[in-house]
Amino acid sequence: MRSKIVAGNWKMNLSSVEISKLVKEVANQIIEGEISSDTKIVFGPAFPYLALVREILDSFHLGNILLAAQNCSEIDSGARTGETSVGMLKDVGCDLVIIGHSERRKFHKESNELLKLKVDKSLEHGLPVIFCIGETLEEREQEKLFEVIESQVSEALFHLSAEDLSKIVLAYEPVWAIGTGVTASPEQAQEMHQFIRLLIDKKYGFEVSDKMSILYGGSVKPANAAELFSKPDVDGGLVGGASLKSGDFFEIIKAI
Ligand code: PGA
């Protein structure tokens, strides 16, 4: 059975005080709410707070809450001012790294080629990846959405062995739904998730595609999470805005 995952991507938000409060509130709700241990919860703080979140999570001894970084460098060390290596992320206790978020593609001009190198570097160090893909509104309107998703997946991932691919979680995040309040309908999400699973199936076979977790991201909220997660190829969510409030985030976790 593939993992169900609810990941909070905090982006460039929250202070140390707010983070401590949020993590403790969600962790306590998870303990009290008897969330199935098969469901994985992920916190994705900004770099300066990774060690803080690790420390708090360790004090709760909850094996199903994982720590994710929001980016990594494609090289191991050296003269890259402002960058953070995968080795450093492992050193502070990260369990995962988010690669290819549309905000990195857009504001930092990250190409499929660069993202491929980042994926390789993460897997070389044994750090599993949440790999984000998604089309813009323009690409959807021009009916290029499937083409765009296919090239994002194939150019960054299809050189991997089946074993390495199994360390990737995909997150389908239509760019037009991120932070806009406009969510893809459950049918739109299912249509794309099914297409993505089929792509994996064609290249790697059923056993690999069936085990791959594919998350939906883009304005996931307590009000729409259950319907999105009820779709057969939607295995959870990558949540931005609604992951910043413990009550909303826990409602979304419960929806899975
Ligand atoms: P959002 O962000 O939930 O605020 O739309 C999702 C994301 O960017 O991962």
Structural category: alpha/beta
In CATH, the homologous superfamily goes by the name: Aldolase class I
How far apart lie the N and C ends? 15 Å
Helix content: 40-55%
User: In which order are the strands of the major sheet placed?
Assistant: 1-2-3-4-5-6-7-8
Characterization of this structure:
The chain has 256 residues and is of the alpha/beta class. It has a single domain, classed as Alpha-Beta Barrel (TIM Barrel), CATH 3.20.20.70. Helix content is 46%, strand content 15%. The chain has an eight-stranded parallel barrel, surrounded by six helices. α1 packs parallel to α2, α1 runs parallel beside α12 and α7 packs across α9. The longest helix is centred in the last third of the chain and has 19 residues. It is globular, with a radius of gyration of 17 Å.
List the defining traits of the structure above.
12 helices; binds 2-phosphoglycolic acid; 256 residues; TIM Barrel; globular; 8 strands; alpha/beta
